[in-house]
Every structure is written in C-alpha cells, then in structure tokens.
Amino acid sequence: MLAKALVGLVALIHLYIVYLEMVLWDTPRGHKAFGLQPDFAKASRVLAANQGLYNGFLVAGLLWGLGEAGRAVQVFFLVCVAIAGLFGAATVSRKILLIQTLPAAAALLALWLGW
Fold first, then answer.
1. CA 48 to chain centre
2. Could you tell me if 1 and 98 are in contact, meaning their C-beta atoms sit under 8 angstroms apart?
3. What is the pLDDT of residues 38-97, one digit of tens each?
4. Residue 108: pLDDT band with limits 50, 70, 90
5. How many Cβ atoms sit within 10 Å of the Cβ of residue 112?
6. How many CA atoms lie within 13 A of 42 on its CB side?
7. 52: how many CB neighbours lie within 10 A of its CB?
8. 29: helix, coil or strand?
9. Residue 53 CB neighbours (<10 A)
C-alpha cells in the first residue's frame, strides 16, 4: 500500500511540474520555481510547454501503472523519472535530486520491498 501511495505522490509531483511548465512558465511563480529571468521565460515558453508535455506522459504512465497495468509499468516509469532527475541534477540543478529522483527512488524501494 505504501508503494502505491509513493507512486501516486510521484505522479502528483509531476502533474504539478506539468502545470508549472505548460501554464505558469512565463509568470512570476514560474520564474521563481525555475529561477528564470522574464525575458528568457518568454522566449522559451514553447520549449517549456513541450517539456511539460513529456512530464505529462510520465504522469500518464504512473497512473496507468497504478491501475491494471501493474508493477512492471510502475517500475518502468519510476526508473524513467529517476533517470530524468539524475540528468536534470547533473545539468540544471542539484535540487532536482530532492524533488524528482528521491521520491522516485523511494517508490522503487517500496515496490521492491513489497510495501
């Protein structure tokens, strides 16, 4: 049960990231969340929306895994999230380890332990 709750939490985190990237990117809240300057945010708005769409696919996969698709699908999408988090931490900000990679790793551990 804990594993499903953690998978759901990872999905919710990414749903919020989708909202930040696709809707709030070029707003003061988006600027603060991603450390953006307004000019850059405006110029990169379409790229951020595209990135948000990809995060939406992660959300869809995690939710699919919580349904009939099951554990293997959950593991696949959690590994995708963790790898994306590692890449983001290496290239953008170490903060991504806490926001993205750590929750995914915790969910993977819970799945592995059968919690």
1. 14
2. no
3. 999 999 999 999 999 999 999 999 999 999 899 999 999 999 999 999 999 999 999 999
4. very high
5. 11
6. 3
7. 19
8. helix
9. 12
